[in-house]
């Protein structure tokens, strides 16, 4: 069994290295100034793609920067009136200047949103197709603390990704009712494979329904999602072009308010064509990579701009 797992890991590294940028939304992605082992508090500049979404009422959701113009999040995190501010490069939301052990990063940047997108088949009742994107009002300039995460724009490697049994969630975690952690947190989330014994009915028992296309069931009593984690990325570290890179594979979609049980994730590989289409049709042409116009699936699900 151990040799099989090692073999799969090596195959994953080779696949990213050989196929390269044609599988990714943006080539210069998923690299942090510091990547370390997981802990309760994330490290400074360890997750430079994290987006803090804020409405006039306060913290709303999390998201991830995927290129110079777009933030990926859950569909239910996209407000109808687009009265939302995207904060990039933040770590401790309670301070203007983030410092750890006398080491500081530059102040965060705030962006208005000029377009919002929800999947056209998003269902608010059962949270199916819970994926959305926000287009920022101005171009993001990358820095050590603001960089995009890697996003697959092809689902051809889905059989390999299906072997993963856990993800790393990055969140501003709920600490009490109506309160979230000011410091960015990380936690490993166990994934429940329906094909494995005792896993098929985990989310069925909690929510009264099974997961459907584009959804994953994940979490346990020891590592779980909270309702305030909406839009947060579920990631894995992979090797590409000589560097460890973070690739986002899921979005926190739905969880119970008590933060005690498994939750539902949106499976990003199921929406690779949707993400690619939104970026291609609504991203400035000057920032468009040539490969974004190649091999596009015109039968993919469309989106509803609001």
From TrEMBL:
Keyword Signal: yes
Keyword Cytoplasm: no
InterPro entries documented for this protein: Peptidase_S1_PA, Peptidase_S1_PA_chymotrypsin, Peptidase_S1A, Ser/Thr_Proteases_Immune/Dev, Trypsin_dom, TRYPSIN_HIS
BP term (GO), one: mating
A GO MF label: serine-type endopeptidase activity
CDD domains for the chain: Tryp_SPc
Gene3D superfamilies assigned to the protein according to its UniProt record, in alphabetical order: Trypsin-like serine proteases
Leader sequence residues: 1-20
UniProt-listed SUPFAM superfamilies: Trypsin-like serine proteases
Protein keywords: Calcium, Disulfide bond, Glycoprotein, Hydrolase, Metal-binding, Signal, Zymogen
Transmembrane stretches, start-end: none
Pfam family, one: Trypsin
Peptidase S1 domain span: 5-280
Family classification: Belongs to the peptidase S1 family. CLIP subfamily.
Protein name per Swiss-Prot or TrEMBL: Peptidase S1 domain-containing protein
């Amino acid at each position: 069994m151990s040799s099989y797992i090692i073999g799969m890991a090596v195959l994953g590294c080779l696949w990213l290295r050989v196929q390269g940028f044609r599988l990714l939304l943006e080539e210069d992605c998923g690299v942090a100034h510091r990547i370390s082992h997981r802990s309760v508090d994330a490290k400074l500049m360890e997750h430079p793609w994290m987006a803090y979404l804020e409405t006039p009422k306060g913290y709303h959701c999390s998201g991830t920067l995927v290129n110079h113009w777009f933030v990926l999040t859950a569909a239910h995190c996209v407000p109808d009136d687009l009265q939302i501010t995207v904060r990039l490069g933040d770590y401790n939301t309670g301070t203007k200047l983030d410092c750890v052990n006398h080491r500081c990063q530059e102040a965060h940047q705030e962006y208005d949103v000029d377009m919002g997108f929800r999947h056209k088949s998003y269902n608010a009742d059962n949270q199916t197709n819970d994926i959305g994107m926000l287009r920022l009002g101005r171009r993001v300039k990358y820095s050590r603390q603001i960089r995009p995460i890697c996003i697959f724009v092809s689902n051809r490697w889905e059989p390999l990704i299906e072997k993963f049994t856990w993800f790393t969630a990055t969140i501003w975690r709920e600490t009490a009712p109506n309160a979230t952690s000011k410091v960015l947190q990380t936690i490993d989330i166990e994934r429940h494979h329906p094909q494995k014994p005792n896993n098929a009915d985990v989310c069925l028992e909690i929510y009264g329904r099974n997961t459907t296309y584009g959804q994953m069931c994940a979490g346990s009593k020891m590592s779980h999602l909270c309702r305030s984690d909406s839009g947060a990325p579920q990631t894995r570290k992979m090797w590409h072009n000589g560097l460890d890179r973070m690739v986002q594979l899921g979005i926190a979609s739905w969880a119970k308010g008590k933060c005690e049980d498994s939750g539902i994730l949106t499976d990003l590989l199921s929406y690779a064509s949707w993400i690619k289409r939104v970026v291609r049709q609504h991203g400035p042409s000057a920032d468009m990579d040539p490969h974004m116009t190649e091999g596009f699936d015109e039968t993919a699900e469309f989106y509803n701009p609001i």
